[in-house]
Amino acid sequence: MADLPVTFDDVQRAAAEIGDHVMRTPTVPASALTDLAPAALFLKLENLQPTASFKVRGACNRLAALTSDERKRGVIALSAGNHAQGVAYHARRLGVPATIVMPRFTPFNKVAKTEAMGAEVVLIGDNLDDARGYVAERVAKDGLVLVHPFDDPLIVAGQGTVALEMLADVPDLDMLVVPIGGGGLIGGIAIAAKALKPDITIIGAEAALYPSMGDALAGREAHYEGATIADGIAVKRPGDLNRQIAAALVDDVLQIEEVDFERAVNRLLADQKLMVEGAGAAGIAAIMTRPDLFEGARVGTVLCGGNIDPRVLSSVLMRGLARKGQMVRLRIGILDAPGALGRITGVIGESGGNIIDVYHLRLLSDLPIKRAEIDVIVETRDLPHVQRIVDALNNAGFEARLQTSVSG
Predict the structure, then answer these.
(1) Which of 105, 131, 185, 198 is the most buried (most CB within 10 A)?
(2) What pLDDT shows up at residue 353?
(3) Beta pairing partners, 356
(4) Is residue 205 domain-shared with residue 338, that is, in the same domain?
């Protein structure tokens, strides 16, 4: 570890620097998620930070190192989310002018939150790559100090304080499962955790659409694209510092599919009562995906962020209900005559279903002119209840079939 770009001493210095300015979040047992794996699970609640993300740690450590002249000139950061808010938060506290460059597609709520912290927000380009030239221009022209989101020793050291706190709270952890984007979080955690417990296992969790760290460690090069719910870790190239640390200290990297991110977000909110974004649920998604890897172990994971778009969260929750058969769409064939809809609603109501919405399918159909189909969205208890409703409709003379894909 002596040859790595960040040391345990760096992490300890970061802890002393940021201790009075960053929340010491709790590490709690995942008491409502015991069915996920044959293991004892513990959650580090970084979603409770003032900006709902661990990013405040590295940002605090980096901004604290600015010289007086650099503080006057100000800082600039390129980010569409949590890093932006972390930099803006501590820049305001320190009285440092901050410019945050975001792509034009950045959700309004993230722009508004960053501006509310006093930063100047510049929207430019369709993605982060498009905006890099503007950032370089501002650094050269105005002397602004670039605060990189992950490829900076001070940032990495700041993120490593997460591990110090976790192992102070639960010293006998056997494994840590850490989300990976650019690698700053897992890099810092690996440095600190391996220094305190050399035999601890470090496992990374990255989006299958953006497996940049796993590919980098395997010597592969690839092009990544696609929309992911885990946008906070959708990084096309991990940091050079962090790739070096991961190669030395990370034991495995798992790729997480989109449906598993959704399931993890859903379980954390519905059962553990914790709201996280897709990236924040990566560790739980990894545990859900590969429970065999964690058998008999005491496992900690970091809920690294809670800044999920409300519309995305709503969709995730509704899709979760649909997968469990608690919200289904039934397609019902009827004779297009007065009273048919009333009889259908009666059958569903008598069977204990709650009708949420009804859609008539008449014009765009190849059915005979005297027949029609309707789609009914129904709230139900579970899959057996759905089947009882379908059976009751068919027994009443209607042709009913389930349209929703359910998985129990």
Answers:
(1) 185
(2) 95
(3) none
(4) no
Task: Round to the nearest angstrom and report the end-to-end CA distance of the chain.
Answer: 46
pLDDT, position 153: 98
Shared-domain flag, residues 271 and 386: no
Dihedral of alpha carbons 151, 137, 225, 44, sign: positive
Tell me the per-residue pLDDT of 338-369, one tens digit each, with 9 for 90 and over.
888 899 999 999 999 999 999 877 655 566 65
The three-class DSSP label of residue 110 is: helix
Q: What is the pLDDT of residue 110?
A: 81
Express each pLDDT in 106-137 by its tens digit: 778 788 889 999 999 999 987 777 788 899 99
- Token pair 């946008």 is at which residue? 231
DSSP 333-382: EEESSTTHHHHHHHHHHHTT-EEEEEEEE-SS--S-TTEEEEEEEEE-SS
CA 52/CA 307 separation, integer angstroms = 6
CA quadruple 374, 377, 379, 384: dihedral sign: positive
| Spatial distance between the Cα atoms of 312 and 170, rounded to a whole number of angstroms | 33
Angle, CA of 55, 56 and 61, to the nearest 5°: 105
Residue with tokens 């605060």: 147
Contacts of 141 (CB under 8 A, 6+ apart): none
- Residues of the chain under the 70 pLDDT cut: 1-2, 362-370, 405-408
Extract the runs of DSSP E, i.e. beta strands, from 45-195: 75-78, 98-102, 120-123, 145-146, 175-179
| Domain harbouring 102, CATH code | 3.40.50.1100
Beta bridge partners of 254: 205
Cβ density class 38-71: b for 16+ within 10 Å, e for less: ebbbbbbbbbebebbbbbbbbbbbbbeebeeeeb
Alpha carbon 248 to its chain's center: 26
Buried b (16+ CB within 10 A) or exposed e, 115-127: eebebebbeebee
Domain assignment of residue 260, yes or no: yes
217, 244 Cβ separation under 8 angstroms: no
Please give the residue range of the domain that contains residue 392. 325-402
The pLDDT value given to residue 2:
63
**Are 15 and 161 in the same domain?**
yes
Do 259 and 184 sit in the same domain of this protein? Answer: yes
- The answer to whether residues 239 and 106 belong to one domain is no
For residue 193, give the nearest of 299, 276, 41 by alpha carbon.
299
